Amino acid sequence: MVKPSSAGSTPESSQPQPRPASAHLPHGELSDPVFPDDAAFVSDKDVRDTPAEVDAAFRAQRGVALAYFLVFLVLVAAFPVLTMTLQWWTEARVFGELSPGFVAAAGGLYLAFAVIGIAAARLSASVESRMLGGQQGLHDEDDASGPAPGATLGTEDPR
Predict the structure, then answer these.
(1) Residue by residue, what is the 3-state secondary structure of the chain?
(2) Fewer beta carbons within 10 angstroms: which end of the chain, N or C?
(3) What is the pLDDT of residues 56-86, one digit of tens each?
(4) Quick check: is 22 in a domain?
């Protein structure tokens, strides 16, 4: 419901407005802003996921995180193993006086960690978008599917 303002020309909303951040409690403590219930902000396009869907998505995300952590751990653990087992890892020279181990540690690990991070983030986002969001994707696919099989665009029934 909209009621006119004190000036009479512009309407004001009847929904409760948050208190300004400068509102203080008796002992000088800042108060938390008061917002209306979440139900006041629910629209037709909001999607509510069930607890089972959220739990399944959480378990999938945890699996993705553990898998990429294991890849990270193997990369980090490979350096001491390679140093102790392969002589050429520290004694050979690749660029000037730099050994393959030094080159890999100085630049290769940063590149590998960046690739792992980007891959993990993209996979996590993909898992979340596929598993959460309710039935929204099903309706979008129906609209974008196009004409029925056997129908041709731009032609009319000759009968």
Answers:
(1) CEEECCCCCCEEECCCCCCCCCCECCCCCECCCCCCCHHHHCCCCCCCCCHHHHHHHHHHHHHHHHHHHHHHHHHHHHHHHHHHHCCHHHHCCCECCECHHHHHHHHHHHHHHHHHHHHHHHHHHHHHHHHCCCCHHHHHHHHHCCCCCCCCCCCCCCC
(2) C
(3) 999 999 999 999 999 999 999 999 999 999 9
(4) no
